[in-house]
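Lay summary. Proteins are chains of building blocks that fold into shapes, and those shapes determine what they do. In this project we predict the shape from the chain. Here is one chain we studied, written as its sequence of building blocks.
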Amino acid sequence: MQRQSALAELFLNSDLVGIVELRGVDTSWSFGEFKPKECFSKYAPFFGQWSMLMHEDPDRTLHEATSDELRLAEQAIDRLDARLHLLESDTWEKITQVNIDGSMIEWKTL
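And here is the predicted shape, written in a compact code that computers can read:
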């Protein structure tokens, strides 16, 4: 997969939810800019809850209850069938983990 400023479509459970501009790779995670489409609204609560919990404790020492809620939010996101359609090469990649926080997106693929 080309990782420099390529465009892709993000699908969740077969719904086209947004456009991703790929920006780079940091270890096993890829990252980019996410531009949601209208259909993203039905998935936004999953990512909104995850984001809220991630930013709840600014010094990153999550309380046990928050940590449990975060784990449940991540499990709900991981159950989504997430795929990227790379426009330039017309190829598909299965996403194993994805996080969307505002306009930022990061993901891992198989």
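What the prediction tells us: The chain has one domain: 7-109.
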